[in-house]
Design a protein that fits this description.
With 396 residues, this protein is of the alpha/beta class. The strands form 4 sheets. The chain has an 8-stranded mixed β-sheet with strand order 1-2-4-3-5-16-6-15, sandwiched between helices. It has a 4-stranded antiparallel β-sheet with strand order 10-12-8-13, covered by helices on one side. A two-stranded antiparallel ribbon has the order 7-14. The chain has helices spanning 26-38, 95-111, 133-139, 142-145, 197-208, 210-215, 253-274, 295-308, 328-333, 347-355, 375-394; strands at residues 44-46, 50-57, 62-68, 118-125, 151-158, 163-165, 168-171, 173-182, 186-187, 222-230, 237-238, 241-250, 281-288, 291-293, 314-316, 337-343. It folds into 2 domains: 26-171 and 291-394, Zn peptidases (Aminopeptidase, 3-Layer(aba) Sandwich), CATH 3.40.630.10; 173-288, Alpha-Beta Plaits, CATH 3.30.70. The chain contains 11 helices and 16 strands. Helix 2 (95-111) packs across helix 11 (375-394), helix 5 packs antiparallel against helix 7 and helix 8 crosses helix 11.
């Protein structure tokens, strides 16, 4: 949605994008505010860039619907007419589609007040990609600034499928961790005077691979990824430290806690075995909660979708290994929630796009520079899904 230059250094000399987009959705929030104002609705700022609008329409339940509004530090490669005009910033995960669908649902509900009764809360959340937005809104008093919802809903566009719903875990918990281990620096020709952190880091990486294969019960899901190992700057110097960047994914918080404990145990013991004279440090960040759909809330939404849409549109889905921070909001209110996926590709239109050279290879996934949800019919389905979900609780 944003079109003017960001007040940030967009590129380093090597062409990379080092900045964070955390809570920087200022013009997006302003645009949403303007759209709500045009509907005669007030937008309440909660945190720097979060927004909530409240439609009170008599007695009845209170429903919260959430759309994430942030972008990614990715250069748009779709070549579409509505592609991003800011180099290095793109809605590469479909959040622009989420915004538009929720605004469309707000418009429909606000124009048809005789069709429902209760309170509708449309929440536009920043910084989902950084796992910071839900927390920022809660820290700014969200639970005391809006009516308490009875149920919360959210949706996300994905490359393929139709409308996919599932009770129980639907998105994994996710944790990133930076581990720093310490050695003793020395000249490369004098290994006997050093404690080599490069070798230490290598042994830790190998040992970490045994957590899932030997410590997680068969049938339970877990992923431990070592995404980076950084140490040293030249060939003839033994550095004094090494840094590992890890990412964890789990569907069970008990499994998550055991994996975190195992990582700590392995790293500390390997440091002792190597003769490291300083304790390793652990910095956890980008921590996403488990998205665990309430069975009753999910069943109600699924039935409403099946009743409204054509046969076969609503399908049971397997849990995804992606992660979200949405559930922090209903968890803070201690209410049930449902989160579903909407497919955003059209096989015929996609094939024509490939032939035209707009996109290439297979259907691009979320976070790809070529991720391009097909506007029609995805936007219509996403908007209707928000309305149908709301009316499953509020409808007369």
């Amino acid at each position: 949605m944003d079109s003017s230059p960001l007040p940030l250094p967009l590129k380093t000399e090597d062409g990379s994008f080092p900045f964070t987009l955390e809570l920087e959705e200022h013009r997006t929030s302003e645009r949403i505010e303007a759209e709500l104002k045009d509907l005669g609705l007030e937008a309440h700022r909660i945190s720097k860039t979060g927004l909530v609008t409240v439609i009170e329409n008599g007695q009845g339940p209170t429903v919260l619907a959430r759309a994430d509004i942030d972008a990614l530090p990715v250069s748009d490669g779709t070549g579409l007419d509505y592609s991003s005009t800011i180099d290095g910033v793109m809605h590469a995960c479909g959040h622009d589609m989420h915004i538009t669908a929720l605004l469309g649902a707000v418009r429909r509900l606000n124009e048809n007040l005789d069709a429902w009764s209760g309170t509708y809360l449309a929440l536009f959340q920043p910084s989902e990609e950084d796992a910071a937005g839900a927390k920022a809104m809660l820290d700014d008093g969200l639970t005391s600034k809006i009516p308490k919802p009875d149920v919360a809903y959210a949706q996300h566009v994905m490359p393929t499928g139709t409308i996919n719903t599932k009770a129980g875990p639907v998105l994994s918990a996710g944790d990133s961790v930076k581990i720093t281990v310490h050695g003793r620096g020395a000249h490369g020709s004098m290994p006997h005077l050093s404690v080599g952190p490069v070798v230490l880091a290598a042994t830790i990486v190998l040992r970490l691979q045994t957590i899932v294969s030997r410590e997680v019960e068969p049938g339970e899901f877990a992923v431990v990824t070592v995404g980076a190992s950084n140490s040293g700057s030249t060939s003839n110097i033994t550095p004094d430290r090494a840094e590992l960047l890890l990412n964890l994914r789990t569907y069970d918080m008990g499994v998550r806690d055991r994996i975190i404990a195992s990582i700590g145990r392995i790293v500390k013991r390997e440091c002792q075995a190597a003769g490291s004279q300083k304790e390793p440090t652990f910095e956890y960040y980008d921590q996403f909660p488990l998205t665990d759909n309430d069975e009753e809330a999910n069943d109600a939404v699924t039935k409403a979708f099946e009743d409204y849409f054509d046969d076969g549109v609503a399908q049971s889905a397997e849990p995804a290994t992606a992660s979200e921070d949405f559930s922090e909001i209903p968890d803070a209110f201690e209410i049930p929630y449902a989160y579903w996926m909407i497919g955003s590709s059209d096989a015929d239109k996609y094939e024509k796009a490939v032939e035209a050279g707009i996109v290439n290879t297979d259907i691009p996934a979320n976070h790809s520079p070529q991720f391009a949800p097909v506007t029609d019919p995805t936007l219509e389905i996403a908007t209707k899904a928000q309305v149908v979900a709301a009316l499953s609780q509020l409808g007369r």
